[in-house]
Design goal:
The chain is of the alpha+beta class. Helix content is 39%, strand content 28%. The chain starts with a strand and ends in a 5-residue tail after the last strand.
Length: 96
């Protein structure tokens, strides 16, 4: 596998969703069509908040799990700082 992406979405209710994929554009389109996850499907529309690249599936799963354990305040601070651990985030939407 050439690498993976971990990404954060902002849902219409203001909640944050974190996931991982090998093809970010395809996965985002699936979410927007309501064919992504059940959680996101009930909270459309969504906006890509940030993403970062990881080397493999195992790293993606660990990063996703680590981000999910953060409180909402910690997640927002991480997004505002633009960094997860030593990985630079690609912020595509402003943090609130």
């Amino acid at each position: 596998m050439a690498g993976c992406f971990v990404y954060v979405l902002t849902c219409s209710d203001g909640s944050l969703y974190v996931g991982w994929t090998t093809d970010l554009e395809v996965r985002l389109e699936a979410h927007r069509r309501g064919a992504g996850s059940r959680y996101v499907r009930s909270r459309l529309p969504v906006e890509l908040r940030a993403w970062w690249r990881v080397p493999n599936r195992g790293s993606a799963l660990r990063e996703e799990a680590r981000f999910r354990t953060l409180t909402r305040t910690q997640k927002l601070a991480t997004l505002a700082a633009g960094q997860v651990g030593r990985r630079r985030l690609h912020n595509v939407a402003p943090t609130n």
